């Protein structure tokens, strides 16, 4: 066998065949248990019936002996009547007469001094297993072979002293003898009925297993038709035509839930693919603008080298190159944020100190602006310091780019959260665009356009970084300018800060 070939298991691959096999195995176990129970009950009930018949026959024998009547040989059950002081049987029949009567009785005679009868009962009998001896004088013919077997035997004693002399003489026993009537319970009837029942149960069980397996197979086949239709329709979905949807059955069962889930998944994939296509198109557009400017300036400079202001051309090329570099870095950062899980290995960061430091070090060279940080109390959060710094810098860059005269940063503790706001006095953002500004490469029609600079990815990166740290970034309504609000989970102060707070040097 080739080592690369897959192993072949006896378990079928088809769901229909597996369901049919599982149903057949389950039914086989159940039917086997039911058959075993029926077998035992039939045997027990038939044995009880045989014992009841033997008891009635024993009662009839006792009545006949009390009347001084010798029982006839013809009987449905084997019996034998023996007496003390007598070698041969008083009477026998039902198969016990197949022994030679002249050779002596088969079953043992009672003792010469039997136990006194119970006065509280009209009559009593005893049941015990006895072995029928094997003798040479036994000739069963075509009847049931009794000799050599051990069977349950019912017997009762009759005292000849309680009978009249005429009745004792009619029975052929002495007046002081004790008669004992034996009735043998044969299991052949119970065994025959049980074997017949077992055969019927076996045939019915096999037919039932086939029918159950077939019913399970076709039931599962019918039930899986919607699944097969869903599979075929899902297989037809391609990147060129992702709008195909699965038909939801009107039954409301699990297949309908599966179809609904698949449609929701396809919708999410379609939306994600559309966003990716839009993102690629926007990124290509954003890259084309600085590349076109850079290429045009270089081509003009090369075409007229003697009339070109080379320092100005180099300055333009450097500015466009920096723009390309910033855009490439933002795209790479977004790609990393899309594939990385939320931050787990975090450190404690003082957001107030970070905001104040950024305010002090932020370069304001292009135009006069006032950048302030309104916060004094420490505000501790958990996360990555570099990512928090990038988040704040993007918010400040956006505010500085659109502010008229002033940008204010506020940090405070509020209901177990740290709230940071960046407010500028620029033209603001329309209410209908409050969420669009966080999308990638969204261009607004007002003065907050990216024509003033930037890559158009700053706010999208800031929101992704906020979500990575289990926070939120929203645009809150203001009458003047735009106000971005960042909410982050508050963290306890580090141990060194607590020690410095309560034990100042």
Residue share in β-strands: 5-15%
Beta-strand segment tally: 12
Indicate the low-confidence ranges by residue numbers. Answer: 445-451, 498-505
Shape: rod-shaped
Number of domains: 3
C-alpha-based Rg, rounded: 53 Å
Strand order of the largest sheet: 2-1-5-4-3
Q: Any overview of this molecule?
A:
Residues 282-492 form the Histidine kinase domain. It is found in: Cell membrane. Its EC number is 2.7.13.3. It catalyses: ATP + protein L-histidine = ADP + protein N-phospho-L-histidine. The chain crosses the membrane at residues 20-38, 200-220. The longest helix has 52 residues, at 15-66. A five-stranded antiparallel β-sheet has the order 2-1-5-4-3, with helices on one face. It has a five-stranded mixed β-sheet with strand order 7-9-10-12-11. With 505 residues, it is of the alpha+beta class. The radius of gyration is 53 Å and the shape is rod-shaped. It contains ten helices and twelve strands. Helix 5 packs antiparallel against helix 6 and helix 6 (310-339) packs parallel to helix 9. The chain folds into three domains: 11-94 and 105-127 and 153-223, no CATH class; 254-337, Orthogonal Bundle (Helix Hairpins), CATH 1.10.287.130; 345-502, Heat Shock Protein 90 (2-Layer Sandwich), CATH 3.30.565. It starts with 14 loop residues before the first helix and ends with a helix.
Give me the secondary-structure topology.
Layout: H1 15-66, E1 79-83, E2 91-93, E3 126-131, E4 150-159, H2 165-171, E5 178-184, H3 188-223, H4 225-235, H5 254-303, H6 310-339, E6 347-350, H7 351-361, E7 370-374, E8 380-383, H8 385-402, E9 406-414, E10 417-424, H9 458-468, E11 472-476, E12 483-489, H10 495-502
Parallel strand pairs: 7-9
Antiparallel strand pairs: 1-2, 1-5, 3-4, 4-5, 6-8, 9-10, 10-12, 11-12
């Amino acid at each position: 066998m080739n080592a690369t070939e897959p192993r072949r298991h006896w378990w079928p691959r088809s769901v229909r065949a597996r369901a049919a096999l599982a149903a057949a195995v389950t039914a086989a176990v159940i039917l086997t248990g039911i058959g075993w129970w029926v077998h035992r009950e039939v045997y027990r009930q038939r044995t009880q019936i045989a014992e009841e018949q033997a008891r009635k026959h024993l009662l009839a024998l006792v009545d006949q002996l009390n009347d001084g009547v010798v029982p006839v040989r013809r009987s449905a059950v084997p019996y034998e009547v023996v007496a003390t002081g007598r070698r041969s049987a008083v009477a026998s029949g039902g198969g016990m007469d197949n022994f030679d009567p002249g050779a002596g009785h088969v079953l043992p005679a009672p003792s010469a001094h039997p136990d006194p009868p119970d006065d509280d009962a009209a009559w009593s009998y005893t049941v015990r297993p006895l072995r029928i001896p094997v003798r040479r004088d036994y000739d069963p013919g075509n009847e049931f072979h009794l000799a050599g077997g051990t069977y349950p035997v019912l017997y009762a004693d009759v005292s000849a002293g309680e009978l009249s002399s005429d009745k004792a003489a009619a029975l052929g026993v002495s007046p002081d003898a004790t008669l004992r009537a034996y009735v043998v319970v044969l299991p052949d009837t119970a065994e025959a009925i049980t074997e017949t029942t077992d055969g019927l149960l076996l045939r019915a069980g096999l037919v039932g297993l086939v029918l159950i397996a077939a019913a399970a197979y076709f039931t599962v086949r019918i039930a899986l038709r919607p699944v097969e239709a869903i599979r075929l329709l899902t297989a037809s979905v391609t990147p060129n035509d992702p709008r195909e949807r699965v038909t939801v059955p009107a039954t409301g069962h699990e297949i309908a839930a599966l179809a609904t889930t698949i449609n929701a998944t396809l919708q999410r994939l379609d939306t994600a693919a559309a966003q990716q296509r839009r993102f690629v198109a926007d990124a290509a557009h954003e890259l084309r603008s600085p590349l076109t400017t850079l290429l045009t300036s270089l081509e003009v400079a090369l075409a007229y080298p003697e009339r070109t202001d080379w320092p100005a051309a180099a300055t333009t090329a450097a500015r466009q190159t920096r723009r390309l570099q910033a855009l490439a870095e933002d795209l790479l950062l977004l790609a990393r944020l899309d594939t990385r899980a939320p931050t787990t290995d975090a450190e404690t960061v003082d957001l107030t100190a970070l905001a104040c430091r950024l305010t002090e070090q932020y370069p304001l060279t292009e135009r006069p602006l006032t950048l302030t940080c309104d916060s004094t109390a420490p505000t501790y959060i958990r996360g990555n310091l570099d990512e928090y710094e990038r988040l704040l810098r993007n918010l400040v860059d956006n505010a500085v780019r659109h502010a008229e005269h002033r940008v204010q940063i506020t940090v405070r503790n509020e209901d177990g959260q740290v709230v940071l706001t960046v407010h500028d006095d620029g033209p603001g953002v329309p209410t209908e665009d409050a969420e669009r500004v966080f999308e990638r490469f969204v261009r607004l029609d007002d003065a907050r356009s990216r024509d003033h600079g930037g890559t158009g990815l700053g706010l999208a990166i800031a929101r992704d970084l906020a979500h990575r740290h289990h926070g939120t970034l929203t645009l809150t309504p203001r009458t003047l300018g735009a106000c971005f609000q960042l909410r982050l989970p508050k963290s306890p102060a580090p141990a060194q800060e607590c020690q410095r707070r309560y034990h100042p040097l």
